[in-house]
Amino acid sequence: MNRTLTLADDTFWVGVNDHETELFEALWPLPYGVSYNAYLIVDEQVALIDAVKGHFLTEHIQKIAAALPPGKTVDYLIINHMEPDHTGAIRILRKAFPGLTLVGNKKTLDMLAAFYGLDQDCLEVKDGDVLELGRHRLQFHLTPMLHWPETMMTLDTTTGVLFSGDAFGGFGSVEQGLFDDEADLELMEGEMLRYYTNIIARYSQMVQKGIEKVKNLTFRVVAPTHGVVWRKDPGRAVSLYDEWSRQEGEPGVTVAYASMYGNTQRLVESAVRALVERGVPVAVHNLSRSHASYVVADIWRHKGLLLACPTYNTGLFPAMDDLLRLLENKMLKNKQVGILGSFAWSGGAVKAMRQFTDTLHLDLVEPVVEAKGAGTEEDGEKCRELGERLADAVMGDE
Ligand code: FEO
């Protein structure tokens, strides 16, 4: 059955929920699934705003057909973003709706040719251009790097729906609530943070530029390509992305540690004990068990970061090495960082973690602890002191 969900006058959700893909981008776990949101505006001319992953084409076309009045077809596909989770079905959509005009900016059209060999019946739009559908008036706003260079947003100035592409999106499927006033927001905002940090975070500076642009627009609904549609509190979607892209962080410490035989873990426990006793919110991740998707999200959430790692083959334990390279790629900033490690015969891990904080200009919280073997009682005390200093650094006057 295709029950059509309505966002505004003549405006319908024709997206799909994906519970089959285990790893988004073949990297990031999807325990709550993901939605590919697409929208249909039915006017004198009909516009489809974004599409879905190719695998879900049949369901997508059934939903479009259910929303289309008899005798109507889809005239335009507005491509806010070219990534294949929104365009994978494009060639077959063209066959299903002959005469479909593909609408995008110059970079979109370059990618259309590169990905799908499509260069006919395309309409190039520029920043601020308007497409009239009849009563509905679509205005295009280029927002590069949210999440690719061609990304744009489409504002229906008639209804005030802002089709925002990946921006303001999140993981999590929406069959239990498409709209912010019906969804489990605690869960969905957690999945939104994970989406932001996993997918968008590298481009945080460009997110800030995009948000400046969005703040000058008048809208009453935010409709992204993934996750919840914000009709009750659209400002919240924008303010969450604003907060995350500023990387200011909440009071709290994320602990990311590796330990082979338990020696580094015992040092971590001393530091964590001190944090807990000071009332600091703490998220602890053993990197051999926690997927980086969750670790990075918690690191983004908190002001403080405690890195702990044994030396492995004269350098970092591989899981820590992977995490630090990922954080460098995401251009992490504004963190208060504590470092501790252990070694058997040669150090290396602590030096590498120091290099990481130097490279990203993060604030190092002393003392740095490096224990030989199982460590001494004095090492344990230094870990407690590190925990206390981290608490001071992240809690401020709270
Ligand atoms: Fe949802 Fe960047 O694609």
Automatic annotation (TrEMBL):
Protein name as annotated: Flavorubredoxin
CDD domains with a match to the protein in the record: flavodiiron_proteins_MBL-fold
Entry similarity comment: In the N-terminal section; belongs to the zinc metallo-hydrolase group 3 family.
Highest taxon, organism lineage: Bacteria
Positions of the Flavodoxin-like domain: 253-391
Matches recorded under Pfam families: Flavodoxin_1 (PF00258), ODP (PF19583)
A single GO molecular function term of this UniProt record: electron transfer activity
InterPro entries reported for this sequence: Flavodoxin/NO_synth, Flavoprotein-like_sf, Metallo-B-lactamas, ODP_dom, RibonucZ/Hydroxyglut_hydro, Rubredoxin-O_OxRdtase
Species: Desulfacinum infernum DSM 9756
